[in-house]
Write a structure and sequence with these properties.
It is built from ten helices and two strands; from the N terminus they run αααααβααβααα. By secondary structure, it is mainly alpha-helical. The longest helix is centred in the middle third of the chain and has 28 residues. It starts with 11 loop residues before the first helix and ends in a 5-residue tail after the last helix.
């Protein structure tokens, strides 16, 4: 006999019916997911400029949803899981498909191999982040974060497409293939990357810092493809530089990443 919607429910059933989600932070997460889906659609249509821009917009949305949730005290387990799924689409599947359609398809199995390594690396990186969040020092990421990996890969595609570089010249396909592998492997590595989460928003800073931020904004807005790609190349290599520096001082990656005792 079918249940009547107006019939009273008890226990677990009533809890499931009344449970909802917070609108504001999940709206930003949905926007991130939409940008990833839109990027895939545009890549399939051959419009790589729009697909690359959509990934960078997804990065902005992804950076806002968590901050909005903390500011409005609307954090939830649902929001955390939803954010990871949206990140997998926008920073895992979408960049892999974009780079494959852009330049790796002629490589055949080796092309989709590199794209799959990137996609699998993003999935493993997100799963590990969720399970290690309480044991890793918040000042560092364990491995290259997936948004930065996506920016590194997509920034290169955007730069090459914007300049109309012939893909068969300058070994561009091989560079894209290498970047896909590099980003995928680095995401699942234990190389520490600085997270900038310990930067205080209330502490006073010298005026020169604001001046440098203004210059950086001008550089990025003057030619976004080159500026963003260069920025994430530096960040994508910074983890290995930090790892080598700590190794030279006798500190392993696990020592750097381990959360200090309270």
């Amino acid at each position: 006999m079918p249940l009547n919607d107006s019939a009273p429910e008890s226990g677990r059933g009533r809890l499931l019916r009344r449970r909802g989600v917070y609108l504001l932070p999940n709206a930003f997460t949905t926007a991130c997911l939409f940008c990833g889906f839109y990027a895939i659609v545009q890549a399939m249509a051959g419009d790589y400029e729009r697909s690359c821009i959509a990934i960078f917009i997804a990065m902005v949305m992804d950076s806002l949803d968590g901050r909005v949730a903390r500011l409005t005290h609307t954090q939830s387990d649902f929001g955390a899981e939803y954010d990871s799924l949206a990140d997998m689409v926008s920073f895992g599947a979408a960049p892999a498909l974009i780079v494959y359609k852009w330049g790796l398809e002629p490589f055949g199995r080796w092309g989709w191999f590199a794209a799959f390594v990137y996609c699998a690396g993003a999935a493993l990186r997100l799963a590990r982040f969720n399970t290690n969040i309480d044991v890793v020092d918040k000042r560092f990421f364990q491995g290259l974060p997936s948004p930065a990996a996506a920016a590194l890969l997509i920034g290169f595609v955007w730069l090459a497409d914007d300049n109309k570089f012939p893909l068969d010249d300058y070994y561009l396909r091989y560079v894209g293939w290498f970047l896909a592998l590099y980003a995928g492997v680095t995401m699942v590595s234990s190389v520490p990357f600085y997270s900038f989460k310990d930067v205080s928003r209330t502490r006073r800073v010298p005026v020169v810092v604001i001046f440098l931020i203004a210059i950086a904004l001008f550089v990025v807005t003057s030619y976004p493809p080159l500026a963003l790609f260069s920025l994430f190349v530096i960040y994508g290599a910074s983890g290995y530089a930090l790892w080598l520096w700590n190794l030279s001082r006798g500190r392993k990656a696990g020592d750097v990443l381990r959360k200090p005792p309270a």
